[in-house]
């Protein structure tokens, strides 16, 4: 069950202590797209996220790292002027390892930021990178995400019973 425990849990991408990640030696931030950055029904980026990314690019390499298809992810990568990985197949290690190889990074230098325990957090923990869970930006989930959300509720309940996930925001593992 510990494979589902995030290193950091925050309300949103705007509440994350990026300075703490930088001090930890993180050089690359992988951002999930759907329900981490924007809702599934949004088709383009916004200025608030663009401004955040512009600031973060001063200290980190920023990538959008999504299971969504290229046609969904490309407009966001272009708008935010960041590289991206589509069809990442999270939680499989393949996409994570490809990014680390391409950018010559170790697992200690990469963090994944996402809204799902079963894809983003499990995938990041599988390869030993820092994992950051944020609340979904929307309550809407497409049909293909609903089974994962159902599993996630069961996992969170089990983690809470084991005192591994209390559901409060934190910057480091408890």
Please give a structural write-up.
There is one protein chain. By secondary structure, this protein is an alpha/beta fold. It has a single domain (2-161), classed as Rossmann fold, CATH 3.40.50. It contains six helices and six strands. It has helices at residues 18-23, 47-56, 70-80, 93-102, 117-127, 146-161, and strands at residues 8-10, 28-31, 61-65, 83-85, 110-114, 130-134. A six-stranded parallel β-sheet has the order 1-6-5-2-3-4, with helices on both faces. Strand 3, helix 3 and strand 4 (83-85) form a beta-alpha-beta unit. The longest helix is centred in the last third of the chain and has 16 residues, at 146-161. It is globular.
Order of helices and strands: EHEHEHEHEHEH
How much strand content do the residues show? Answer: 5-15%
- Classified in CATH, the superfamily is HAD superfamily/HAD-like
CATH fold title: Rossmann fold
Number of helices: 6
How many strands? 6
Number of spatially distinct domains: 1
Q: How are the strands ordered across the major sheet?
A: 1-6-5-2-3-4
Segments where pLDDT lies below 50 for 5+ residues?
none
Largest sheet: 6 strands, parallel
């Amino acid at each position: 069950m510990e494979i589902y425990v995030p290193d950091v849990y925050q309300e949103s991408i705007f509440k994350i202590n990026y300075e703490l990640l930088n001090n930890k030696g993180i050089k690359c931030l992988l951002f999930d797209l759907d329900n981490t950055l924007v809702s599934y029904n949004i088709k383009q980026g916004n200025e608030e996220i663009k401004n955040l990314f512009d600031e973060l690019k001063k200290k980190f390499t920023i990538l959008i790292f999504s299971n969504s298809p290229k046609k969904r992810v490309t407009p966001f990568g272009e708008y935010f002027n960041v590289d991206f990985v589509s069809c990442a197949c999270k939680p499989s290690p393949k996409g994570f390892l490809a990014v680390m190889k391409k950018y010559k990074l170790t697992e200690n230098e990469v963090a994944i930021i996402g809204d799902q325990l079963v894809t983003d957090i499990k995938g990041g923990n599988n390869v030993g990178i820092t994992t950051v869970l944020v609340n979904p930006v929307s309550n809407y989930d497409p049909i293909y995400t609903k089974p994962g959300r159902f599993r996630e509720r069961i996992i969170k309940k089990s983690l809470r019973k084991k005192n591994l996930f209390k559901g409060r925001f934190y910057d480091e593992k408890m």
